[in-house]
Specification:
Chain B: Keywords: ATP-binding, Cell membrane, Membrane, Nucleotide-binding, Plasmid, Repeat, Sugar transport, Translocase, Transport. Chain B: One of its GO terms (molecular function) is ATP hydrolysis activity. The complex is a heterodimer of chains A (about 400) and B (about 525). Chain A is mostly helical and about 400 residues long. In chain A, α9 packs across α10. Chain A has 2 domains: about 260 residues, Orthogonal Bundle (ABC transporter involved in vitamin B12 uptake, BtuC); about 70 residues. Chain A is built from 15 helices and no strands. With about 525 residues, chain B is an alpha/beta fold. Helix content of chain B is about 30%, strand content about 25%. Chain B has 17 helices and 24 strands. In chain B, strands 6-9-10-3-11-12 form a 6-stranded mixed sheet, with helices on both faces. A 6-stranded mixed sheet of chain B has the order 18-21-22-15-23-24, with helices on both faces. Chain B has a 4-stranded antiparallel sheet with strand order 2-1-4-5, covered by helices on one side. In chain B, a hairpin with a 2-residue loop joins β16 and β17. In chain B, α4 packs across α5. Chain B is globular, with a radius of gyration of 24 Å. The chains are: A mainly alpha (about 400), B alpha/beta (about 525). Chains A and B meet through α10 and α11 of A and α10, α11, β20 and α13 of B.
């Protein structure tokens, strides 16, 4: 699946049958919808209860956020195993700065971000400029920063955080227009986002048509984007029935939009794909390949720091085990999302779908009361199946 | 020359489709026992597909037609089946493990073992016998990675002999060899023929074919269009070329009236230290001048330092630079990074098209835009996909890149069209100096002609071209002036009027440094 295909109607292989084409482009989204539908039935409707949807978002936000950075790292042809430990060490740092040293929130957040950037820069420097294998550098980082987490926190849980900090995870959008139990502002926000989305797609389509490009028929266009916009509104409606839009959702959405633009539209993004696709060709084409890889790791560090703060705020304490094993969920999300282990391939949309497939599986199976033993096995098999489907399609091409 | 009339291989009415695309329509191939049979055809004519069918890569049932080998019908399901029957393919890209020894490579998958343990003494002895048969005297413990490409090619042949081969298929065996190694290889083919080994050779080099082949089958657009036998038919290069491209190429090199201007590009006293041997100068005081509108060739054997010279100038990608300057239009320029080199108007088209020239999984459009993304972006940051497409469509038309559109993956293009994509990428940077490294390696006669025409257009537009090539006829046919390089130095310089193959080879052999 080429990552352009999802965003630019003109980039499509017109020879495919409509159904096949939809499966190729949106196969993962379809899989997500099927999984959601399955658990909705299997849990007698508990899955899409407003409270549970809100929880699903809160539980998976930090995975999605880190997956955005991991996508960049993996597309550039590398891997980062240290993100779980960065979550831990940044959480511990936040605990020390805010709870123990009573530093103001703003400075503490900045320091935490800088800490993430510094860790990413150190690892990126080793990988990009010293050509050390990223697997080993970040494996070392995973151990070092887990140890650092325990050292910084003194092996204790630090908390609770002041409300102003935990707001970044458990806060909700203020709602002056509440009608009964329905948070109208949240619903309106959803409608606005859906409308904006529709408008952008419409303008793109008009532009393609005006250049005699290949665009889908009006009916297909309306159906596809109407369904998408409808989903956004429905989703916000569910949330509006509970406590409205969580602040985490806003943070996550903004990051998703920014990273979609970077990966699909920016020169930097194109260069990451080129570096992962063929390092030598990228270097001969004037791309500063070392700097690209370095920046991908710095970026990963910053996003892991954001995730670390959100996670600490959600638990309302920083613990020595925070973030333990997160790297596996994040990497699994990226590969389920269709990225290639050899680099050069992967999409933001795919990664988000991948992260939520894992999230819904976790959540749905827990509601159904399936034991942790079977949960692990099922998640492992889903990862394997996703990669299998990917390889199968590639071999067929 | 003995001529056996018994047919060892008979492929009848072979057809093969990939989805809606018909790669082979009707190919017939009759190879007689003990002969060297050449297969010619433009890239994309279907030669590789045919060989993949013969070797079982495309299993029986996925193609139409019949294969008779050694008198009986064969239905190969995989490579193992065909190897078992005695068919061995030696691919253009060598399939050797560089970190293993010669012996280990020769018996890979076929180890000399007793009770699961390798009998090294027997293995090395057997390896020595095989090495002797291909004329190598290296100790069998030598790592394959330490051998040159030419010798590696011979190891591949020895590996085939180890499997008791009945039919050996060589896919462009000399594409990356220099003249001397090519010579050794062709002689070996003739020797093996004398000992009864049947070979199929796929090659674009017509002089080699006429030297070793007994028969030629020409394939065009997935069908056999001509079969010639040297003993019976009147065979000429013109006839082969005409059958391949279905048009007379009156001249293999398009004509050009040189319009030379002032000196445009100059390298002075260029010296580079070898990255793996710090006491050795890989490039030794090279001086070079190219005038506006001029095509200048660099000739030399493999390993003479031609590619290294180009790479050391273009972004200092090779070795450690210890002296010398680069000048463009009389002013010294800084080429210490690739980005700076491109900024000054240099372009380098690599010899390794797939490995370093293209992002194979990306589309034609994306590959063309890669070296000049700023030009298709607003604010130098946001890429405008529509201008990427416009630019790519423009080049696709101008350079006649054959594809269904510019969104096609370059991996699916033929070699000639891939090369045109690489050239488009560099022409899109609007270079002043175009450095071409083996620009027509492994591509067919028709596409070569088109590449030469692109070179001519570039110099007509006031650029200058520096062409590195191992094919002397190509340099003689296209260049205004030719430098000869050996062991990191320029050892000769000839104008188009003076240059002949003999003189150039003579300059290499005598190896006298050129005194400027």
């Amino acid at each position: 699946m080429s990552e352009t295909a999802t965003t630019h109607p003109g980039w499509r292989d017109t020879a495919l049958l409509p159904v096949k084409r939809v499966m190729k482009e949106y196969g993962l989204l379809v899989a997500l919808v099927v999984i959601v539908a399955f658990f909705q039935i299997a849990t007698n409707g508990s899955l899409l209860q407003p409270l549970n949807v809100t929880n699903l978002l809160l539980q998976n936000s930090y995975i999605v956020i880190m997956a955005l950075g991991m996508l960049m790292v993996i597309v550039s042809g590398h891997i980062d195993l240290s993100v779980g430990s960065i979550v831990g060490v940044v959480g511990a740092l936040a605990g020390v700065l805010i709870v123990q040293m009573h530093l103001d929130i703003f400075s503490a957040v900045l320091l935490c971000l800088a800490c993430g950037a510094l860790i990413g820069a150190m690892q990126g420097y080793c990988v990009a400029y010293w050509k050390m294998p990223s697997f080993i550098v970040t494996l070392a980082g995973m151990l070092v920063f887990r140890g650092a987490t325990i050292a910084v926190s003194g092996g204790q849980s630090i908390g609770p955080f002041p409300a102003s900090f935990s707001w970044i995870s458990s806060g909700f959008m203020a709602d002056p227009l509440q009608v009964g139990s329905l948070r109208v502002t949240s619903l309106l926000a959803g409608v606005l986002v859906a409308a904006a989305f529709f408008l952008i797609e419409y303008r793109t389509r008009r532009r393609v048509l005006s250049r005699n490009g290949d665009a889908p028929s009006t009916a297909v266009f309306l159906l596809k984007n109407g369904a998408f916009a409808g989903l956004i509104v429905y989703f916000c409606y569910i949330l509006a029935n509970y406590r409205g839009i969580p602040t985490v959702l806003i943070t996550m959405s903004v990051l998703i939009v920014v990273y979609t633009i970077i990966m699909n539209k920016s020169v930097f993004g194109r260069r990451i794909y080129a570096v992962g696709g063929n390092l030598k060709a990228a270097r001969l084409s004037g791309v500063n390949t070392q700097r690209i890889v370095f920046l991908a790791f710095v970026n990963m560090g910053v996003l892991a720091a954001i995730a670390g703060m959100i996670f600490a705020a959600r638990l309302n304490s920083a613990t020595p085990r925070s973030g333990f094993g997160f790297e596996l969920d994040v990497i699994a999300a990226v590969f389920i999302g269709g990225a290639s282990a050899s680099g050069g391939v992967g999409t933001v949309l795919g990664v988000i779908a991948g992260a939520f497939i894992m999230g819904v599986l976790n959540n749905g199976m827990s509601i159904m009361g399936i034991g942790v033993d079977y949960q692990q096995m099922i998640k492992g098999l889903v990862l394997l199946a996703a990669v299998f489907v990917d390889m199968y399609q590639k071999n067929k091409d | 020359m003995t001529m056996h009339s018994s047919v060892i291989l008979d492929m009848q009415g072979i057809e093969k489709s990939f989805g809606p695309v018909k790669a082979l329509r009707n190919v017939n191939l009759h190879v007689r026992k003990g002969e060297i049979h050449a297969i010619c055809g433009e890239n994309g004519a279907g030669k590789s597909t045919l060989m993949n069918i013969l070797s079982g890569v495309y299993p029986h049932g996925s193609y139409g037609g019949r294969i008779l080998f050694g008198g009986e019908e064969r239905r190969f399901r995989n490579l193992r089946d065909s190897e078992h029957a005695g068919i061995c393919i030696i691919h253009q890209e060598l399939a050797l493990a560089p970190m293993l020894s010669i012996t280990e490579n020769l018996f890979l998958g076929n180890e000399k073992s007793k009770g699961g343990l390798i009998d090294w003494t027997a293995a090395h002895d057997a390896a020595r016998v095989l090495l002797d048969r291909v004329g190598l005297s290296e100790p069998p413990e030598t790592l394959v990675g330490d051998l040159g490409v030419g010798k590696q090619q011979l190891i591949e042949i020895a590996k085939a002999l180890a499997k008791d081969v009945k039919l050996m298929i060589l896919d462009e065996p000399t594409a990356s060899l220099n003249e001397r190694d090519s010579d050794t290889l062709l002689n070996l083919m003739l020797e093996l023929k004398a000992k009864g080994v049947t070979s199929i050779i796929i090659s674009h080099k017509l002089n080699e074919i006429s030297r070793v082949a007994d028969a030629i089958t020409v394939i065009r657009d997935g069908s056999t269009v001509d079969v010639m036998r040297y003993a019976v038919d009147e065979v000429s290069e013109a006839r082969i070329v005409k059958a391949m491209v279905n048009r007379e190429l009156a001249d293999r090199y398009p004509r050009r009236e040189p319009k030379l201007g002032e000196t445009m590009f100059e390298i002075r006293n260029w010296r580079v230290i070898d990255p793996s041997h710090h006491d050795r100068e890989a490039i030794r005081s090279v001086n070079l001048k190219v005038r506006r509108g001029e095509v200048v060739g660099i000739s030399g054997l493999m390993g003479a330092g031609r590619t290294e010279l180009a790479l050391s100038v273009f972004g200092r990608l090779f070795g450690r630079h210890i002296g010398g300057t680069v000048h463009l239009n009389g002013r010294e320029i800084d080429t210490s990074t690739v980005a700076k080199s491109i900024g000054h108007g240099l372009a380098y088209v690599t010899e390794d098209r797939k490995g370093a020239g293209l992002v194979l999984g990306d589309s034609i459009a994306r590959n063309i835009a890669l070296a000049n993304l700023k030009a298709v972006s607003s604010f130098g940051f946001m890429i405008d996909d529509h201008s990427v497409l416009d630019v790519a469509r423009d080049f696709r038309e101008k350079l006649r890149i054959r594809s269904h559109d510019v969104l096609q993956k370059v991996a699916n293009l033929s070699g000639g069209n891939q090369q045109k994509v690489v050239l488009s990428k560099w022409l899109f940077t609007d270079p002043e100096v175009l450095i071409l490294d083996e620009p027509t390696r492994g591509i067919d006669v028709g596409a070569k002609y088109e590449i030469y025409s692109i070179v001519n257009d570039a110099v007509a537009a006031g650029k200058c071209v520096l062409m590195i090539s191992s094919e002397l006829p190509e340099l003689l046919g296209t260049c205004d002036r030719i430098y000869v390089m050996n062991e990191g130095r320029f050892v000769g310089e000839f104008t188009a009027a003076e240059a002949t193959q003999e003189r150039i080879m003579g300059a290499i052999m005598t190896n006298q440094a050129l005194v400027n």
